[in-house]
Amino acid sequence: MTTPQHPAPPQHAPQQAPQPPAGAPAYAHHAHQAQQAPGPQAGYWPGQAPGGGYVSPIPIRRATLADALLSEWTKIRSVRSTVWTLGVMVLLFVGIGLLVAVGFDSTGDSMQNGSPLFVGFFGLLLGILCVITLGVLTISSEYGTGLIRTTLTACPNRGRVLTAKAVVFFLLTFTIMLLCTVLVSMAAWTLLEDQSSVDPSADVWLRATVGVSLYTATLGLVALGVGTLLRHSAGAITVMLGVVLLPLVLAMFMATDALSDIRQAFFEYSIPNQLAAFYATSADPVSGPGGWTPLWIMAGVAAAVLGGAYASLVKRDA
Amino acid sequence: MIELADLTKDYGDVRAVDHLTFTVRPGIVTGFLGPNGAGKSTTMRMMLGLDHPTSGTVRIDGRHYRRLQDPLKTVGALLDAKAMHGGRSAFNHLLCLAQSNGIPRARVREVLDTVGLTSVAGKRSKGFSLGMGQRLGIAGALLGDPQILMFDEPVNGLDPEGIHWIRNLMKNLAAQGRTVFVSSHLMSEMALTADHLVVIGQGRLLADTSMAGFIRENSRSFVRMRSPGHERLRDVLHGAGIDFVPRSDGALEVEGEDAEHLGELAARHRIVLHELSPQQASLEEAFMRLTAGAVEYHAHDDHQPPAAAAPGAAWGTDWRKSPRKKKGA
């Protein structure tokens, strides 16, 4: 086999006949066996093939993380679940935020020491559920459909696959959250400025926009990690709902004094309370970690979960 | 070139692949044959670095699959049809694969044209038939124009036109000097496409031989004779010292004699023949004999022995799927 043959012309009848037979499936009519671009003789030097094998005219270059990122971007934008989850998130977050702002504005009540930006919090509680769903689906849908095996065949470097998914998901979620939080915060400020006694500092503004967006996107990364570990959409989403809601629910049932410390910790470190901390002002602080601390906590959790996800992805059979 | 050395895979206590050693060479179509649950898919997944072998190695052109820098340009694989997100269009499915290996976008259009899916490129693959899904999977395998191609049961769900097309495609790919490795549980299908044959049963290597050699060794040829003068024909054959096997429908099967000789013999004794036909035992039967001890899922039928329960091309197709396959499916 020193001289590879070029593809033979198609052999079967439907292609040679000018009119394909009636009743044949439409998609089959265009079947061609032309494997290569015209003029394959010029494309490569047949003698170069190791062992006389086939050499493709497609230029060979090492696949990189940039290729994986581009691929994951195509994946995430080409399915409807992305549009649905992010669309519903925008609708809930912006819609509820604006409604609360307008409602509060119409009552004319004073917010006292509360930040007007706090109105974003109500929509956020529902919005994070959408982000969690998308984070889980980003990888678990591949396990559900079997696409993961195609993906890992195309990119056997599993760490690169997970990194690319995490980066693309994080940037997409962060960008959309940032646009939403800026929009809601500015609307709230415009409507409620006269009803609040606080003058939000730059830090308050930053935490209510960039901080909330980073926190939400990082929470989504935890969901992505749980999706990788469990490989099951419904299971992973359920676990994430538990992570978000369970500490608060448990705190409610710990009525005895003996458990009050644990109860306090559950409450303070619960995700809803941590989200509220992003809207707190120095005049109206929340109990428990405040300022930017919740973000660092969530980043630590995400790092741990993604580390576990990476180890699991590399070790287990796909 | 794919080299397997002592490849073994255990799932708990069950040994799915048992010390497999063989080499898949370029320039020919190598058929990978075995009953359902024999370990074909598991072996192919290990070749692609998806499953980790319990012991042993697979090398693709001398390297482990995970060490390949440009996997899609080296190996193209069709594992199972529908290993794709149903909500994504055919074009986007191939595009994200192409992008992950830096393959130009124009190549996506090319392979869609090759498999005949151009007209449905923008449609979501959820609505595709099994055959269309297979074609899209094959398009994915061809995307990188690779030297090595692996197809797991590629004719499943294809219509006759599609089966004809894939046979020619595989032969052409091999003729270009590529390594083509195709699994099937249908011997008849392999006989038409494969040049070389690797047969496994319960994870063990049963045969590693050229197709021609397998046919030569395993196809029993005989002559079938039927006559209204049944008893006389028996006597004449006895008289000539020719052995025969009587069949339930009254026919006699004679091995080791050619039809001309038998016809002339009958004519000399003025025996009317209703049938005189040279026959070849099917390769399917030879394959079943070979794997008889290694079939994991026998169909049970009170009235028929298992070996007789699965005639012809439908062999094994209606059997239960392997529970181990479910793990991957």
TrEMBL record, chain A:
Biased composition (Pro residues): 1-23
Annotated transmembrane regions: 83-104, 116-139, 167-192, 204-227, 234-255, 295-314
Annotated stretches, region: Disordered: 1-46
Alphabetized UniProt keyword annotations: Membrane, Transmembrane, Transmembrane helix
Low complexity bias locations: 24-46
Name of the protein in question: ABC transporter
Lineage of source species: Bacteria, Bacillati, Actinomycetota, Actinomycetes, Kitasatosporales
From TrEMBL, chain B:
Molecular-function annotations in GO: ATP binding; ATP hydrolysis activity
Protein name per the record: ABC transporter ATP-binding protein
Highest taxon listed in the record's lineage: Bacteria
Low complexity bias spans: 305-314
Keywords for the protein's UniProt record, in alphabetical order: ATP-binding, Nucleotide-binding, Transport
Domain ABC transporter residue range list: 2-227
Source organism (scientific name): Streptomyces cinnamoneus (Streptoverticillium cinnamoneum)
Family affiliation: Belongs to the ABC transporter superfamily.
Disordered: annotated span: 302-329
